[in-house]
Amino acid sequence: MVDVTRVCVKIAAFGAAVLTLTAAARAQEFPRPTLNLYGAAGGIDMPSGQPAPDGEYSTTHSRFAGISRTTLSFQLAPRLSGSFRYTGILNWNFGGFDTYYDRSFDARYQLLKESEILPSVTIGLQDFLGTGLFSGEYVAATKNLTPKFRVTGGIGWGRLGSYNSVGSPFGERPTNNIGLGGKANYAQWFRGPMAPFGGVEWQATDKISLKAEYSSDAYTSETGPRDIFIHKSPWNFGVGYQLSERFRFGAYYLYGSEVGVTGQLLIDPSRRPRNMAIQGMAPFPVAVRPSRTAQPQMWSQDWVNVPGLDDKIKAAVAPLLAADDMMLERLTLSATRAELRFRNKTFGAEAQAIGRAARALSRVLPASVETFDLIPVVKGMPLTRVTLQRSDLEALEFAPQGEAALRLRVSYSDVGGVAEMVSDDNRQPLTWGLRPFTRFSFFDPGNPVRMDVGVRLSGNYEISPNLILSGAFAQKAGGNLDQARASNTVASVQRVRSEATKYNDNDTPVMESMTLAWYQHPARNIYTRLSGGYLERMFGGMSGEVLWRPIDSKLALGAELNYVAQRNTDQRLGFDEYDYRVLTGHVSAYYEFGEGYLAQLDAGRYLAGDIGATFTLAREFDSGWRIGAFATLTDMSAEDFGEGSFDKGINLTIPLNWLTGYSSRKVYSTTIRPVTRDGGARLAVNGRLNALVRDYHTKRMDAQWERVLR
Amino acid sequence: MGKGAAMNWTAAAATAGLLALVGCGSDIDATADSRIVRDYLSKVMQSRTNSVPQITRARLEADALPRIKVAIDSRKMTAILGKLAVNGPVVTWVAADGATIALRDGVAIATRGLGDDLMSSYAPTANVLAQAAGTLTRSHYYIDGRDKGLALTLRCEVRAMGDETIEIVERSYRTRHISESCTGTDVAFENHYWFEKGGSIRRSTQWISPEIKSVQIDVLYP
Fold first, then answer.
1. Mean pLDDT computed over A489-507
2. Please, are residues A687 and A530 in contact by the beta-carbon 8 Å criterion?
3. A241: helix, coil or strand?
4. Chain B residues inside the 8 Å CB shell of A484
5. Between B35 and A145, where is the model more confident?
6. How far is A660 from chain B (nearest CA, A)?
């Protein structure tokens, strides 16, 4: 109890110091924090009380004393952030690993926002899910005393309470039963010895900052019998250098004996990189109709009776769309109204495609056609009817903020209930692509990054716009994915995703997929898909899906049912290697909270026959960037699941358009899992409806509406 | 393992980089990145070889087509543009590379295909400028990195600078030089207009956007 008093006195003294000093501070907007060796906002090796800027995504790599940390951090909400870390320790000599690799997760929440007087206070959990080797909890307070000087003080438990502790106010810290990892070690949180830490940071110039800190981490495991380094002092010193908006480097003198370095990549996904403007060809301008009073004959509706004129008009519209790599699917004309169904393969911003299509029509259609119904079509499904008036387009083309005025005059509606998708004959039924591919595996237990490169030939044959035969063939050129550590598994569990290594171990061409898929938008708000064939690299069979998604709804519901068999590892035609068949499927709910926060719940039966649910929470930016985290809990026991106890991971989606500024619908997506096992594994069928349909519904269309007149 | 892994990496990265250029096919989705890399490279090569187009009065007279010349100093680019479309008083001019600039009686009000485009603007008319009537406001509208509208509001001082004789492609024009000096948050620029007797703008330098800065526009023909 004496210890508690001591620490209370210390904290009070620190608090008094902070308050005295802050009286002088006048900064209302506080400078952004810098990152520590753990890739979290902080000093050198200790955390701070400040959050990163909202939405910031960072990758940090740091090294000292043979300890390397690679951390992906994301400020999920203004107060909430999370990190995924991959740590490597040379000469750890544990469990048969010379270099020991471990994965861990952090979570941090800002309790108090910084004000003129009060500091920013954050409570944090470090390595709260993993094996717990790096576990520590803390409460830290940071105050920017001047725009160039900040001070941090905090108290830590676990690893962060291991040096010069002042007592254990909340009882002893139970030994962590590491077991299989993946379980929240909450019994330990804030228990055991507690120790204070603190530091200062001075922004000496625009680019250079100097840091000093007192660390409460004794590095007990590293400095003891393992002798990875010698802890001579709790004091750390360092210098940070901001090379550019996105790159930062640091060098440190640590624990009186070691030199450390760090490199950081900081990304704000909400905005394109600075100086990365929207590229791409200018649009065809609107062709304005002649005045009705001056040239009434031009406004005559008699053209509807001219045989063959429809075809001529179509033939004139199609090349205007083709100039933007868009495709006319159907054009239906009446004297005053035109309905254009078209395919957008170019513009990541859906509104931009709408604007281009509208201008193309304005250049060709007779003057009497006043109303345009523009319907983007994906896989033969007409997704939304965007109705606009041609006279608005003419009047607003060069009006100040014309796009905002245009949005007020445009309406969206559903196009459901079209039984047959009729298409004009200018389709190109066969499309193909031959291009290199890379396949990555991040952070597996033996190697931070594994990669294969090769060549992939892919093709689509449209029997009709919504009945599509597609296939992909690949030939690996080289790589090391086939050397991934084969994980030990439980005999009673069907080996599904844990067999990935075998599927990557092919030196001959493989058939990645070969499917026939049929899409429909049979009724208002309802979309359907039926796919059959070699659905993915590891499974083939049948897959059916129904989605209910009103165009402006926050909620969507879906159901999917698949009957699949496990493919042979050579990825040719056979299914006899495993002789495993499974009925798998989910009911899904998708919800948009607003501000880009998305949630998804999928409940059902997984590939290994286990039953449970996956919860996904994501943040999506208007640019199309998306970062999400998911966890799957099923009736498969932690013992059966193995290392990690349950399936979880991070999804990352980055649009090519964001990276380059060029118009494209291509996105790069990756899923990072600490371990890939057999529990909670879902079928990876192509063309799931929600992602296809949602892009052209109100929310996404409006997200980049500013580009409609681009 | 360390060294071997590093070599694998270098080789793999180099292969991926090279192969990124060779993707081909008719499937736009599959080959988008290869196309973008190639477009970008060809643009870089083009800008290296861009030279001031040689044009003569005789040629302009023979073609008898409306022509303007736009010079973008910040890009070291000059192009001859033709008339593409007319919407009321606004004429859209197009360059060979497909970029467009919209002029309302000679006053630049929008661009497309230049990168940091001026999406729309609330700008003074040529008449108001010609009167050199003192202070006015201007608004420029852009799309920011978040794909949201970004407004730049400016206060401008318009002054008569006196009579000047200018020469454009072998022909002299007697003009009144008007300057428009604008300031806004974090930005300041000067536009210049050379008005002919009838009130049309023969030459101008006009500020477009923070990245493109000022462009010079010469009306070559008629």
1. 86
2. no
3. strand
4. none
5. A145
6. 8
Domains of chain B are 57-221 (2.40.360.10)
Burial zone of A44 (CB within 10 Å; 0-12 exposed, 13-18 middle, 19+ buried): buried
Taking the CA atoms of A353, A359, A361 and A367 in sequence, report the sign of the dihedral they define. Answer: positive
Bridge partners (DSSP) listed for residue B195 = B176, B201
| pLDDT at residue number A527 | 96
Q: Is the pLDDT of residue A140 over 90?
A: yes
Residues of chain A contacting B34 with CB distance shorter than 8 Å:
435
% of chain A residues with pLDDT over 90: 68
The one-letter amino acid at A167: G
- A270, B34: Cβ pair inside 8 Å? no
Give me the sign of the Cα torsion angle A465, A468, A471, A472: positive
* Alpha carbon distance A657, A352 (integer Å): 13
Assigned token pair, A534:
């070699």
Q: Is the pLDDT reported for residue A150 higher than 90?
A: yes
Average predicted confidence (pLDDT) for chain A: 89
Phi, psi of B138 (to 5 degrees): -135, 145
- Measure the CA–CA gap between A689 and B6, rounded to whole angstroms: 41
Q: CB-based contacts of A207: which residues, under 8 Å, 6+ apart?
A: A241, A242, A243
Task: Give the per-residue pLDDT at A38.
Answer: 95
- Residue A524 CA to residue A382 CA, distance in Å, equals 11
The pTM assigned to this predicted structure is 0.87
Mutation site for B-interface testing, chosen from A99, A278, A473, A622 by largest number of B Cβ within 10 Å: A278
Q: E-assigned strands of chain B? A: 24-25, 67-72, 77-87, 90-94, 100-104, 107-112, 120-122, 134-143, 149-168, 171-184, 187-195, 201-209, 213-221
Would you tell me how many other CB atoms lie within 10 Å of the CB of residue A549?
Answer: 21
Give A435's contacts in chain B (Cβ within 8 Å): 19, 22-25, 30-31, 34
| C-alpha to C-alpha distance for A252 and A667, rounded to whole angstroms | 38
DSSP for B131-190, please give it.
TT-EEEEEEEEEE-TTSSEEEEEEEEEEEEEEEEEEEETTEEEEEEEEEEEEEETTEEEE
Instruction: For residue A272, give the nearest of B31, B88, B145 by CB distance.
Output: B145
> Quick one: tokens of A320?
């205007």
Cα distance between residue A633 and residue A630, in whole Å = 10
Q: How many residues appear in chain A?
A: 710
ipTM entry = 0.87
Dihedral of the CA atoms A430, A516, A481, B33 (nearest 10)? 30
**Interchain pair A453, B90: CB under 8 A:** no
Residues of A in contact with B100 (CB under 8 A): 282, 285
In terms of Cα–Cα distance, which of A389, A410, A404 is closest to A286?
A389
Assess contact for B138 and B158: CB atoms under 8 A.
no
Contact A453 B16 (CB under 8 A): yes
Task: Summarize pLDDT for B147-195 with one digit per residue, the tens.
Answer: 888 999 999 999 999 999 999 999 999 999 999 999 998 899 999 999 9
DSSP structure class, residue A677: -
Asked whether the beta carbons of B80 and B69 are under 8 A apart, the reply is: yes
- The type of residue at B148 is K
Tell me how close the Cα of B32 comes to any Cα of chain A, in angstroms: 7
Collect all residues of chain B within an 8 Å Cβ-Cβ radius of residue A349. 147
pLDDT value at residue A651: 92
The tens digit of pLDDT for each residue in A231-272 reads 999 999 999 999 988 899 999 999 999 999 999 999 998 888
Secondary structure of A450-519 as H, E, C letters: EEEEEEEEEEEEEEECCEEEEEEEEEEEEECHHHCCCCCCCCCCCCCHHHHHHHHCCCCCEEEEEEEEEE
Which domains can be identified in chain A, with CATH numbers? 2-267 (2.40.160.40), 296-425 (3.30.300), 430-464+466-699 (2.40.160)
